[in-house]
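Lab manual, section 2.4: Encoding a predicted structure.

Procedure: take the sequence of the chain (198 residues), apply the prediction step described in section 2.3, and record the output as structure tokens. A sample record is shown.
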Amino acid sequence: MPMGIRSTKFAPGNPMSKFEQLVLTLGGKENVSLVASNLKVFEAISHAFYKELSEGEGDLSHLIFKTIKNGETVDGVDILGTNVKLIANAYTRNPKLSGSIVEALSEVDNYKDAYIYYSGFLSLAADNAKDPTLTKINAGPEMVTLYLAGLALGVPLESLVTIMTSDFGWEITKLINDNVFNDNTGLSGVDAVLKYYL
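Recorded output:
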């Protein structure tokens, strides 16, 4: 059972409940630092993209994400029905842009501001001890950076929640988590989990 759900059944005086409450509290502190550092990175990337899109000359199609399908390179990365071509909040004031970069910019949904989502994650991380919402959506310290990377790419939050709370998402978290009660040291990260399965 996910820890976020188990937390609703904590029993006073139960040592396991005390341990899990401690994990939630410390996880919240760790999440705050992870979200804050990822926000700084996203700001730097956003600035670099804006500067290039606004001041760059000629073909800027190198900024578009690429995927290899059937041996051919195509624009964009498909994630649960969303075709992501540029980072979230990408925009420009350059009227001279043309071609595939203009098409890619027109598909960026700036109504879903990634900065707002980052701010929300920061607030939830700070309140994690009393309301473990991030834990309920499988966004603990082991997995929250995957959410943040998805948001930076402009992937809808709903799609990220669907992926992360799937059986496979919870299984990844389970394999990464260590447990002092059974000497399980856990795997070192998502890459290690994928290698474990592959």
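Check your result against the sample. Residues 14-165 form one domain.
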